Amino acid sequence: SIVLKHLLPNIQMSFLNEIGHLPHTKIIKEIRSNTVNFIRTILNSDDSTNVLNTVQLFIQHTCLGIPERAEFRAHCEESVSEILTSIPEEKLGPFIEYLYR
């Protein structure tokens, strides 16, 4: 969970506010893509409940902190959906409940 906490800005793209300028779009997409792939690798390599719960919590935090810019929202939504494809369908129940609240 400590590692994922530090990856949150890569998905939310909030690091762009900290650096003061927009890097090239290709770099932004690469950062986001690498982060999503890393999380998917974690999910695929370890089937434990702790990993699954941690990733679901990460996704919840991502959804809560999406920036106001439409472009950033679209990228966050895409990242979340990519991560969700790595979670087994029978384990998605708690996250779907969270979304409906």
What does this structure look like?
The protein is mainly alpha-helical and 101 residues long. Helices cover 75% and strands 0% of the residues. The chain contains 6 helices and no strands.
- Described by its quaternary structure, the protein is single chain
What percent of the residues sit in helical stretches (DSSP H or I)?
A: over 70%
Percent of sequence in beta strands? under 5%
Radius of gyration: 14 Å
Helix and strand composition category: mainly alpha
Mean pLDDT: 81
From the N-terminal CA to the C-terminal CA, the straight-line distance is 24 Å
Give the overall form. globular
The tally of helices reads: 6
* Poorly predicted parts: none
Beta strands, count: 0
- SSE succession: HHHHHH
Largest sheet: none
